[in-house]
Amino acid sequence: MKLHEKILTHYLSCTSPVDKEGYLFKKKERNATYQRRWFVLKANLLFYQDRPADRHLLGVIVLEGCAVRRSESEGQLAFSLVFEGPGLKTYRFAAGDGQTQESWVKALLSASHCYLSLLVRDLGRQYEEAKLQQGSGASRHSSSLSALTQPTHFLPVQGRATVVREGRSYSACPVLQTQSTPPKVVAKKSPKLWPRRNAHVTPLNGPAPLYGEWPLVGFDPLEDFSKLHDYYGQEVKKAREEWLRSRRAEDECIDGHLIDLG
Amino acid sequence: MRFNEKELVSLSRQPSEMAAELGMRGPKKGDVVKKRLVKLVVNFLFYFRTDEEEPIGALLLEQCRVEREDSQSFSIAFLDEAERKYLFECDSEEQCGEWVDSIVKASYEFMRKNLIFYRTEIHRLTGKDPLEQYGISDETRFQVNNGLQLTPRDTSSL
Fold first, then answer.
1. Using CA atoms, how far apart are residues B60 and B46, in angstroms rounded to an integer?
2. What is the pTM of this model?
3. Which of A24, A56, B43, B90 could form a disulfide bond with B96, CB atoms 3.0-4.6 angstroms apart?
């Protein structure tokens, strides 16, 4: 089967941020030795190469239909990606230290498209409920947002667990416990841009931006919903305008869907 | 570049609501329309020769432009190469619309933006971060200002 690699490498190096990157040891299947590789996780794709600055990618692992397991039998810092099905592989890794191992396991657990799909569906439902509870704000809901609120159509891989209202379980992911942390303070400053990086050239060395920088669009819960939509829609508008400008002015039917926001 | 081919082929066999025989034409000059079984699974578009078990190929649906070409066909352009498009011919206007819609919404980046939107909105409406209960609030991939370019606003009233 042909995997159109250029599409993947183009996606990797485009401006949307990388989800995680760093050195891990990958176990060779044949002779059970570990080789240090630079891994870059983006969406449901795990790329690897020799070093951060390398332009040549050694490979990619598509993270669908796999479970993330800690491999106690192979050492405390080991973990694996187990693809479930006859004849399917298990990829084995080891981290340099416990913290690295934990953060990679966590990142990989939430990496699949399937997981994100269930999460979006769940949050979409919570959002609708929250709007109803707000009362009058919901009635001015902009219809152009319907594209955002519709759930995706797809079944989870292998038809496994759908989101249960109270159970909160996801396929291939452990049930996550409710945290008892205190509510985060809303930061009173404008949101920062995520620094743009080319994943091939500039490895991320610093920590991820901190949670807490919620975009400020006003505290009034009765604020016109369409203002909020406009605020978040700025980027979309800009992308659309640029794209429309570059199009030949013909009588083509341009569908009003969100396209290429990257 | 190596990739987990068997696992990807296995993925292509998963049930999908968007699977149909469409006319498909590649992006190169001289490519002609061929009948293919086209199947959308997660953010990949697989295409098979009819009645074959293994797909011919897989297209990652990220960073691509999906457009209606006419009433019954749509195109997908990758690599910012607007003129190099894959063309797909459907049986009806309705089917065509469904495909365009589904492909757009299948993109991981599209879903991520939705998630960030919902997260922000739920927090605004309820004061709570909906990801906290799942212990994933700090995951880089779900950060609120992740990749979004938000135009600066006058926040002096706050």
1. 9
2. 0.69
3. B90
